[in-house]
């Protein structure tokens, strides 16, 4: 079931999947979707030993560039409230909090911070 869902992600015409590579090794990835003029950043992960070295920012920057090329005007994401490192990174790239989902996550139960960014289609 997980394998099937994973493969379907690659076949979905709305998916945007990016990887960060160092010395021939995948050290991070980003998975998002873009439909019409809206997008969602679904997942981003960087191997722990490579965090803080710019890979996450490079992935987000490339994602935003692709969205701009596709004339996507707004991108959304959600993140665990306790994930201060990710929230800080998203804010660095212009995301702003626009809501909260109470008790959204399980194991442990935690709020989801909702964030969004308007993309300047004239040259973000």
TrEMBL record:
Organism in which the protein naturally occurs: human gut metagenome
Enzyme class of the recorded protein, top EC level: transferase
Cross-referenced Gene3D superfamilies: 3.40.630.30
Keyword Transferase attributed: yes
The name this protein goes by in its record: Ribosomal-protein-alanine acetyltransferase
InterPro entries tied to this protein: AcTrfase_RimI/Ard1, Acyl_CoA_acyltransferase, GNAT_dom, N-term/lysine_N-AcTrnsfr
UniProt-listed Enzyme Commission number(s): 2.3.1.-
Keyword terms, alphabetized: Acyltransferase, Transferase
One Pfam short name: Acetyltransf_1
GO MF annotations, alphabetized: N-acetyltransferase activity
Cited PROSITE patterns: GNAT (PS51186)
Record-annotated N-acetyltransferase domain positions: 1-120
CDD domains tied to this protein: NAT_SF
């Amino acid at each position: 079931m997980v394998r099937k869902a994973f493969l379907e992600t690659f076949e979905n015409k709305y998916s945007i999947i990016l990887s960060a590579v160092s010395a021939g090794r995948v050290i991070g990835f980003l998975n998002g979707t873009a439909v019409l003029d809206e997008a969602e950043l679904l997942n981003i992960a960087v191997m722990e030993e490579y965090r803080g070295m710019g890979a996450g920012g490079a992935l987000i920057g490339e994602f935003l560039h692709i969205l701009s090329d596709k004339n996507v005007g707004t991108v959304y994401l959600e993140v665990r409230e306790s994930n201060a490192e990710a929230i800080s990174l998203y804010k660095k790239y212009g995301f702003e909090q626009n809501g909260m989902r109470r008790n959204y996550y399980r194991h442990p139960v935690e709020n989801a911070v909702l964030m969004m960014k308007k993309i300047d289609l004239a040259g973000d």
